[in-house]
Amino acid sequence: MPNRRAVFYVSDRTGITAEALGNSLLTQFDAFEFKKTTIPFVDSMEAADRTVAHINATAASEQHRPIVISSIVDEAISARIRECNARVLDFFQVFIAPLEQELGVKSAHAAGRSHGLRNSQEYFSRIEAINFTLAHDDGQSTKELGRAQVILVGVSRCGKTPTSLYLGLQCGIRCANFPLTPDDFERGALPDSLLPYRDKLFGLTIASDRLQAIRQERRPDSTYSSAEQCRREVQAAERLMEDANVPMLNTSTKSIEELATTILLQRGLDRHIF
Fold first, then answer.
1. Where does CATH 3.40.50.2300 sit in the chain?
2. By CB count within 10 A, which of 3, 32, 120, 211 is most buried?
3. What is the CATH number of domain 120-267?
4. What is the residue-wise DSSP string for 43-84?
5. Would strands 248-250 and 201-205 be described as parallel, antiparallel, or unpaired?
6. pLDDT tens for the 274 residues of the chain, in order
7. Fold of 4-115
């Protein structure tokens, strides 16, 4: 297939950096279908040789040579990877070398530095944020809710949990989330447990047809997933949040990353970089 290319993310550690960079680049080429493979822990010449053999075998079986995005620090291992039959984009050659030249110093060239445990306090703060988010998912606890940095509200299956988890895992933000239910709509008011924390609330909404498709997968052909039920709940939730002056985001066409970044920006919260 002319518009199908193999992509390898090669790293001496987990591959997260290579994946993040590569995925950002590849989204600019929506005419192509990319078959992505991550090869982590390429931290020896033996591992590099195996990786090169794998990439070369793929090149031999495909119509086009693969694309390799590498975040390997060791220059000897990186040089071996660059010998493969592929278009190799070397993270450190592209970015670190110009920075060394600009700053007038050599980089540390320490493998795993981008994800290493550099600051124990930051690490434990992140673990705390993750634990808090898990404990306060879907309204299961109101204990210590005042410690939340943001509280997401919205109808069931509108994207509260994945957004909360991303904020906890990737941003170190203590995030709780609560579902808005038909009982809340009948009362015309937010849950009582949330009233003391209005300034921390952030609403998520969704197109009713998108909500129906999601709920249909969870509970097929039920009242919960019916078009009418989804439409009523979305309208009632939006009206309730508007009346309570809760800011809202529509999750229908936005990625988790976009949602999280917008919430941080609008709430004036700092992302913790680890």
1. 4-115
2. 211
3. 3.40.50
4. -SHHHHHHHHHHHHHHHHHSSS--EEEE----HHHHHHHTTS
5. parallel
6. 568 999 999 999 888 888 888 888 898 898 899 999 999 999 999 999 999 999 999 999 998 899 999 999 888 999 999 999 999 999 887 887 788 888 888 776 555 555 444 456 666 777 888 899 999 999 999 989 999 999 999 999 999 999 999 899 888 899 999 999 999 999 999 999 999 999 999 999 999 999 999 999 989 999 999 999 999 999 999 999 999 999 999 999 998 989 999 999 999 998 765 4
7. Rossmann fold (3.40.50)
Q: Would you say how long the chain is, in residues?
A: 274
Which amino acid belongs to residue 13? Answer: R
What is the model's pTM? Answer: 0.66
